Amino acid sequence: MKKVTQAYDSQGRVNSRAGYNPAEREALIMEHAPIIRYVAGRIAMRLPSHISLEDLMSAGVLGLIDAVDRFDPGQNVKFKTYAEFRIRGAILDELRAMDWVPRSIRRKSGKLEDVYNQLQSQLGRAASDEEVARELDIDIEEFYQLLDEVKGVTLLSLDDQNGPLGNLDPDRIMQALSREEGEDPLMMLGLAELRAQMAKAIDSLPEKEKLVISLYYYDELTMREIGEVLGYTESRISQMHTKAILRLKGRVKTLVAD
């Protein structure tokens, strides 16, 4: 990684909340640099092949630098936790700036979200693949192809700047990350109702989709590893993940509109 530069005060300290001197700052960046590849790699697995991992990592470097300069040790939060948050945010910002998802694909994704939400309300349960395909007036193979087309859109779904978490101030997020044991971060962010509704929405997912979400986001397994655990192909696991996120995003849209 290239060395980074920054303005220093009269005492040779970087102008940051933590007050690191140049050597301390450089050491902290180098120590946590491996996180960049880890976060970028997990995101890249759900993107088309033409999106360069190196581009994502370059954005992640800026996120790590930003984390070092914004980090406040007084908040009693681990730097690694905060760095992962800033790195992921920087990479997602870069993807948004690329605007790499065609509008036609975004429209298809939006249509799927609406159909999932509509059928959920009508049936009182999660709709099956066959029910969604029938509502879209396509056969089941076309439905699975559609899931593969829109999987990249779901990457940004719950992180979207226009979503309920998109415009929160970094200081509020920092405070939430430094919560006491047992305190819920969304409660601290004033999103208790959203948290409760999202927990309910996740609980209503089909069991296999719920398990995929748990293994991917909580146990941090890759799609391939989840496939090995559950006995499915990586492609099938990716489709389950996409369906789960589409269901959840449709629910979030309803909550925000209410």
Give the number of domains: 2
- Identify low-pLDDT runs: 1-15, 157-171
Structural class of the secondary elements? mainly alpha
Our count of helices gives: 13
Termini distance? Answer: 47 Å
CATH fold label of the largest domain:
Butyryl-CoA Dehydrogenase, subunit A, domain 3
Largest sheet: none
**Apparent shape:** elongated
Query: Percent of residues in helical segments?
Result: 55-70%
Please give a structural write-up.
The protein has helices spanning 22-32, 34-44, 53-70, 79-98, 103-123, 129-136, 140-150, 170-177, 185-188, 192-203, 207-218, 223-230, 234-257. With 258 residues, the protein is mainly α. It folds into two domains: 22-98, Rna Polymerase Sigma Factor, Chain: A (Orthogonal Bundle), CATH 1.10.1740.10; 103-257, Butyryl-CoA Dehydrogenase, subunit A, domain 3 (Up-down Bundle), CATH 1.20.140. Helix 2 packs across helix 3 (53-70) and helix 10 (192-203) packs antiparallel against helix 13. Mean pLDDT is 79; it is low at 1-15 and 157-171.
What attributes characterize this protein structure?
258 residues; mainly alpha; Rna Polymerase Sigma Factor, Chain: A; Butyryl-CoA Dehydrogenase, subunit A, domain 3; 2 domains; 65% helix; 0% strand
Quick overview:
With 258 residues, the protein is mostly helical.
List the helices and strands and how they pair.
Layout: H1 22-32, H2 34-44, H3 53-70, H4 79-98, H5 103-123, H6 129-136, H7 140-150, H8 170-177, H9 185-188, H10 192-203, H11 207-218, H12 223-230, H13 234-257
Helix pairs in contact: 1-3, 2-3, 2-4, 3-4, 5-6, 5-7, 5-13, 7-13, 10-13, 11-13, 12-13
